[in-house]
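Structure ticket #2291
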Amino acid sequence: MLATDHLDHTDVHDAHEAAGRPRPPGLAGTPEDKAMLRAAADLTRDITRARPEIYWPDMLVSAVLGYGALALAIRTAISGGSGLVVLALGVFAALALYRALLFIHELTHIHRDALPGFRFVWNLLVGIPVLMPSFMYEGVHSLHHSRIRYGTVEDPEYLPLALMKPWSLPVFTLTALLLPVGLLLRSAVLVPLGVIVPPLRTLVWERASSLSINPSFRRRKPEGAFARMVFWQELGATLWAWTVLGWSATHGWLPLEIAIGVIALAALLNQVRTLVAHLWENEGDQMTVTGQYLDSVNVPPPGVWGGIWAPVGLRYHALHHLLPSMPYHSLGECHRRLRAHLGMGSTYEKANYPGLFPLLARLVRSTMGARA
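Resolution: structure written out below.
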């Protein structure tokens, strides 16, 4: 979906004025910057193709490096090697697997025919071994990009974190450490039990089958070809979980413990990235696309760390909300073209930030102000 798709509809701001209602408060009341939306589409039409020569090596190398470092960490720990070496290898494995895992985001946006075999291979090498198959994001993340759902109670990926209590931030962040254990419990126990206990199957699907942060979100039952894909991915994840647990029970639990630690670290890093993906200032109102953009965050170069903690194009998260189907490898060029065309004083520039820590500090200050 390109930015011009939004221009064919009356925006939220126009609808409020037509009905004689006042604008919603904050960013929800932002009118559309149609010049920015049109420029985003017109200036980037030639770089919208997903390039397999970039996707495949990037994903495969990230996975191989991640698993290789994890294997070395396990081998070093079993042989009684240095704890610092194990830690360094574990951190490297977490960073590499984090990058490989984030291709799940690309799978939700690229056309199903754009990269033949990519979804299958990603699930085989990354999604199922980490117990996070692509169905857990596909069909969910698209709701976050809906013009009428973003920032509302129907958005699975939105919470008004900036308006919540200060203690909510560490709780939100640290719960990510429980993710690998939760995924193991889900695939090894809850999904198989759900086959013979239909109410449990319904509960697991609605509440524990999507990578969402909104506790009010309930996932709808899958249908058609998507339901068949879910079945095979669930079967693969369950068989893998049983294999891992069976092997660990007979050969020792240390490898699994190290693997859980590595995935937990990757999940923690992703949760920190999520904290600064948006400003989280909307209280449930529908927003214009421009409002969504301004509630989102770009952390462009010259900073180099953004490509590590927000890889696979996610350092351009605000730009991604303007051009959701733009492949990750084109977002840097999109950013350069739009900044040059629109200028430093434009609406586009207002979503660009210098780095992770200033954004975290802003979020903390917002929650401190929300205590009253």
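Closing remark: The longest helix spans residues 224-251.
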